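Why do we care about 3D structure at all? Because function follows from shape, and shape follows, mostly, from sequence. That is the central idea of this module. The next example makes it concrete: a single protein chain, its amino acid sequence, and then its structure expressed as tokens.
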Amino acid sequence: RKGLLLAVGGDSGNPFYDFFLGRELNPRWGSFDWKEFCELRPGLIGWMILNLAMMSKQYDRLGYVTGSMVLINIFQGLYVWDALYQERAILTTMDITTDGFGFMLVFGDLAWVPFTYSLQARYLVDHDPMLQWPALAAIVGVNMIGYMIFRGANGQKDAFRRDPNSSELKHLTFLQTKRGTKLLTSGWWGMARKINYTGDWIMGLSWCMVCGFESIVPYYYAIYFAILLVHRSIRDDHMCQEKYGDDWGKYKAIVPYRFIPGII
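And the structure:
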């Protein structure tokens, strides 16, 4: 239909691929954006409802709620609260700016997120490792480190995009591109090009750790999410190369690491 915003990747000519990836970028009913709504509301809130249901079930079975179950609800509740509270930050993510609203995002938002991300809470109903408080405290530390990196990096990027001339950001250096945009080369983003992914993954690892170490099942999230983030970073690198041209090579020379400063 005339005037629609279309996703670049959803016009391959293969009907199955295009259905999976999505052709329309931001389908709307008036001002109601279906993709943004599905990204943030039903899946994330449903995830929290399922977690609370698992906690209630554990209480029915044991007569009390374990430390691991409390932590998984707090950790993932913080994650969901952060996503909803920082809603405007999602407007610059790949899901919103690049990917079409096809089966991949619809299924991911409405089914994959609530019913697989709640796996750790489900596991704890029947297989709680009964971790002692020193172990739980260490896991809290891991989660806090991940959140500090994740929120610090994303907050800095969002603030710079909104007002790069802010006095609070004047200490940051950047690369001025031929397109007129600026790429941060110091602060969090001078450490690694996808430092926010690293913080996100560390938080996810802490969710798995509350389930102990007797089974790989609750660690599915850390494994799956690592694969997803690596793949997404490769896609983003390719798009930025096309978007910025030679400037992207200059940027990568200044910020050579992708995830972990000095390592990778």
